[in-house]
What we know:
Strand content: 15-25%
Number of strands: 19
Structural class: alpha/beta
Number of helices: 24
Bound molecules: thiamine diphosphate, magnesium ion
Distance between the termini: 76 Å
Amino acid sequence: MPRMTAADAAVAILRREGVTNAFGLPGAAINPFYAAMRRDGGIRHTLARHVEGASHMAEGYTRARAGNIGVCVGTSGPAGTDMITGLYSASADSIPILCITGQAPVARLHKEDFQAVDIAAIAGPLTKMAMTVLEPAQVPGAFQQAFHLMRSGRPGPVLIDLPFDVQLAEIDFDPETYQPLPVYKPAATRAQIAKALDMLAAAERPIIVAGGGIINADAGDLLTELAELTDTPVVPTLMGWGAIPDDHRLMAGMAGLQTAHRYGNATLLASDFVLGIGNRWANRHTGGLATYTAGRTFVHVDIEPTQIGRVFAPDYGIVSDAGAALRLFVEVARERQGSRPDRAAWVEQCRHRRATMQRRTHFDNVPIKPQRVYEEMNRAFGPETRYVSTIGLSQIAAAQFLHVYRPRHWINAGQAGPLGWTTPAALGVCVADPDTPVVALSGDYDFQFMIEELAVGAQFNLPYIHVLVNNAYLGLIRQSQRGFDMDYCVQLSFDNVNAPEVGGYGVDHVKVAEGLGCKALRVTEPSEIGPALEEAKKLLAEYRVPVVVEVILERVTNISMGTELDNVVEFEDLAERREDAPTAVVAMLD
Length: 590
Ligand SMILES: Cc1ncc(C[n+]2csc(CCOP(=O)(O)OP(=O)(O)O)c2C)c(N)n1
Ligand SMILES: [Mg+2]
């Protein structure tokens, strides 16, 4: 039997499970694992500048391609605690990442040893398994179980904590005969699917709410096929955006309190039946449940049994992987083609709402209004673009105005929304798929959170365009403070003694980005945005580093939002003519 250190066995298993990349930051307690990675030579390591960054890189890496599992590695103590936000973000959005931490030697764990913290206990609620492995011979089983759990059922992260001496201990292990454990995914039965389709057929104004589970299952094509076979309009959630292309005739818009379209909300409210697939009725999608559910029948399909009925009781629940359910949905719907109800009038109503209920994007104001930035991004970036963003007015407006045409092309920290996520997640996406253009979008505060990670992009030649919309404000919080009649602790503006040219907006992002080895441009006029984005593409091709395009916005813009689907407040003029929203996918009827 081959003998090797437990760390060597762990790395061999990573390889057998398909891992080719890791994101991390070494330290004394994880050095044996790094030594094993070095001996193996098959795992490309991206050195983060902040361990939280490594965890978000791992998440971006997972989310860019079906089957990927991002791995993040750190030393003991503060490295583990830094990655807790990454585990939270990944678990909240059902994304598998494997976090590996070093730990103090077993015999010193209870002696308040240097950087010995009970990271498994801290990570417990955020992971599908969090384990400090105390017996070297348990290491292979721990890793095998980790991959099984990450891939089975509702996907999510795992943490494995390896004491220093456990990593170094020799064990018997045969990598050649190692086999990944089978993956468990519940699948709907034909009777369940037939019943759901009966309910859909009985409805007059049905819609499908398409959640992130469809993206995780790589089932966007099946969703689109089901929509076409039954002529049912689709309302993607924020996590499901891209499952059906924005330019599909059955794409009805997103619904919600913030990241939503006016026509999406109107269509949801006009519907009488909702088939939710791989979604979780998130509060910012539903708003108040009385408004959301009144007069509607619901079917809920989810891979996790305890998600059925968690937020409200659906009329019918099906426990299934979204892909497995959609395969059967498509099969049975095909068989029923002859008896399909005529939905033409309802589909046309949804389409008409899409062509009339638009928000204005075309403003020529200086300082620039944010809506204009997204209009220019729609012109500059085609359907091949992958967008990455986290939270803020910037992200909310992006969801209202940008276009997404493919699954995994809107990569967003939906539930947790940790500031600082955007830059490292975008870098992880670049590692996973260097051939697809990546465009990150941040507000100024999000950008400043993990700004140091730009150096990782410069060092490892991970080129992407980072659109930075700068209002020198914690904009989303400023807007929500209106309810408290205050503007308190949310200003980011100051007179920068080194950069009078930023005109009181505080941080000179161009200088910082350049200092970190990236290229950067700043624009202040709406007519400069398009040319700057084109210039950014050239700089990216020439220098192969991240390129930041900073757009100086007006300080105060309120973005459409509300507390119920039927009370979303519009703060700006709505579109009345085609020229008001010139990049809308469905041209405005005027
Ligand atoms: C770590 C963390 N702390 C606090 C928040 C709350 N929060 C959400 S958005 C936001 C302000 C974002 O400002 P900016 O990135 O400039 O975007 P803007 O809203 O101005 O477009 C804050 C503080 C958060 N999401 N994450
Ligand atoms: Mg801001």
